[in-house]
Amino acid sequence: MIRWVRTATANAGKFGPLVQWGKGVTDHINSKHGANLTMFVEQFGRPRVHWAIDVGSLVELETLLKKVQSDEEYQKLLSTVGDLILSGSIHDTLVESV
């Protein structure tokens, strides 16, 4: 199993709006692409959100990411993020179960 996680830190005072925006993106990806993307928020520390998905293989992940990236509605959602995310704070992690 492969787990992909994307983490982003909210700009000061933007955590609530980032959570709302992120939930909309998550719902869109799941409903349009049949994914099982889950969004998490950190409970302590920095105002961070995390998106995670588990897939069977790197090929499956690559196929899904290509579909999402070519989705015009998704691209429109990305264009509305504005100043919600701290510049340079997006980080992706890819792990494999053993």
Secondary-structure map:
Layout: E1 2-9, H1 15-33, E2 38-41, E3 48-55, H2 58-69, H3 72-79, E4 91-96
Antiparallel strand pairs: 1-3, 1-4, 2-3
Helix pairs in contact: 1-3
Characterise the protein shown here:
There is one protein chain. The chain has 98 residues and is of the alpha+beta class. It has a single domain (2-96), classed as 2-Layer Sandwich (Alpha-Beta Plaits), CATH 3.30.70. It has 3 helices and 4 strands, in the order βαββααβ. A 4-stranded antiparallel β-sheet has the order 2-3-1-4. Helix 1 (15-33) runs antiparallel to helix 3. The longest helix is centred in the N-terminal third of the chain and has 19 residues, at 15-33. The model has no long low-confidence stretch (mean pLDDT 97).
Q: TL;DR of this structure?
A:
This protein has 98 residues and is of the alpha+beta class.
Order the strands across the largest sheet as they lie in space. Answer: 2-3-1-4
What number of domains? Answer: 1
Sheet with most strands: 4 strands, antiparallel
At CATH level 3, the topology is Alpha-Beta Plaits
Count up the helices: 3
- Binned, the helix content reads 25-40%
Q: For the CA atoms, what is the radius of gyration?
A: 14 Å
Mean pLDDT level: 97
Keywords:
27% strand, alpha+beta, Alpha-Beta Plaits, 98 residues, 3 helices, 4-stranded antiparallel sheet
